[in-house]
Design a protein that fits this description.
Rossmann fold, eight-stranded mixed sheet, about 325 residues, alpha+beta, 2 domains
């Protein structure tokens, strides 16, 4: 059976099925950290209701919770009812897909919900943030959807700053400080963003059929960094329509910084229901104590991006030794 090897969240992943998202292959001598196995049966097994520890309030088109979590002894199952199961075991994820009509969702479920939860169980924390490398360290950009995160990330990558993560950043804290695992080699751009950065949106597939965002390989924009890198700064983006606002990076107080990271945590409800909420809060507090968080204020518009990029880089480089 043919196997495929990918570097995802700095894990060497060996899979018996191909993923569509642009991904980097690890070196041939890298041992696998995780194996993805596709179950042959298209039928989801019956799971006892008593084993369900989480069911999302958001429903799918069947009227069921869109995602559920089951715990069965040493096993956990992330279920997308009537569509897919992902059984999580140490070093292994077994995927069951009920129909080929959900094939386009396989990458989204794996790269979003499943692998980030797998890493959360092992002491990491995932937040909605883009990340680029500046002088060997990482600057993260946190923002709500539609607030300019991918636009700024794309501008920085196009200027030669290596991409670390576009949408989900996985952070780890230990006695050495905070590190960010590289994500995957894709930036999600709207058609308008793709036309601005690449000259055209033609030939780009949608990340999800129901959304306008397009899948753009990081290599089409600029360099990519693979590994785990120390985090230097975390910025929350404050994009304003007011004309000619000077770019500023103002420090946040620790309470505001912690609330910001809590609000932008990924899979917060699922992680809380799994009994990991207290551990995550402690890790976020450790991050706030270790990494300065700043509010980056700037004027909206593609024409202002070079100035914003340069100000962010200068802020990072000016305090890199601290």
């Amino acid at each position: 059976m043919k196997t495929y090897r990918y570097l995802i969240y700095n894990l060497c992943v060996e899979s018996d099925f191909r993923l569509r998202t642009p991904l980097v292959e690890p070196s041939p001598d890298t041992p696998p950290d995780l194996r993805l196995i596709r179950a042959r049966s298209p039928r989801l097994p019956d799971l006892p209701h008593s084993a369900r520890v989480y069911a999302s309030a958001l429903t799918n088109h069947f009227g069921q919770s869109s995602v559920e979590l089951y715990r069965l002894g040493p096993r956990e199952v992330v279920r997308f009812p009537c569509a897919a199961d992902f059984e999580l075991l140490p070093g292994q994820v077994v995927c069951t897909l009920t129909s080929a009509q959900y094939q386009h969702m396989l990458d989204i479920w794996l790269l979003g919900y499943v692998l980030t939860y797998y890493l959360e169980r092992r002491g990491a924390v995932a937040i909605h943030a883009g990340a680029v490398q500046i002088g060997g360290r990482v600057a993260l950009m946190v923002a709500d959807a539609g607030c300019g995160k991918s636009t700024l990330v794309a501008a920085m990558v196009q200027a030669g700053l290596p991409l670390v993560a576009d949408d989900i950043s996985v952070l780890e804290y230990d006695q050495r400080g905070v590190a960010c695992r590289s994500g995957y080699a894709q930036i999600k751009l709207s058609p308008g963003q793709a036309r601005f950065f690449l000259g055209s949106a033609k030939g780009r597939r949608r990340v999800h059929p129901g959304f306008a965002k397009l899948s753009v390989a990081a290599a089409d924009l600029g360099p990519l960094a693979c590994g785990s890198f120390p985090v230097q700064r975390i910025y929350t983006l404050n994009r304003t329509a007011a004309p000619a606002v000077p770019v500023s990076a103002e420090p946040l107080g620790s309470a505001e910084a912690l609330l910001l990271l809590v609000r932008h945590s990924f899979l917060a409800e699922l992680v809380g229901a799994a009994g990991l909420g207290a551990d995550r809060l402690k890790r976020l507090a450790d991050i706030v104590r270790s990494v300065p968080l700043k509010r980056l204020t700037y004027t909206d518009g593609y024409e202002h991006l070079p100035l914003v990029r340069d100000a962010l880089v200068a802020d990072c480089r000016g305090t890199a030794a601290r």
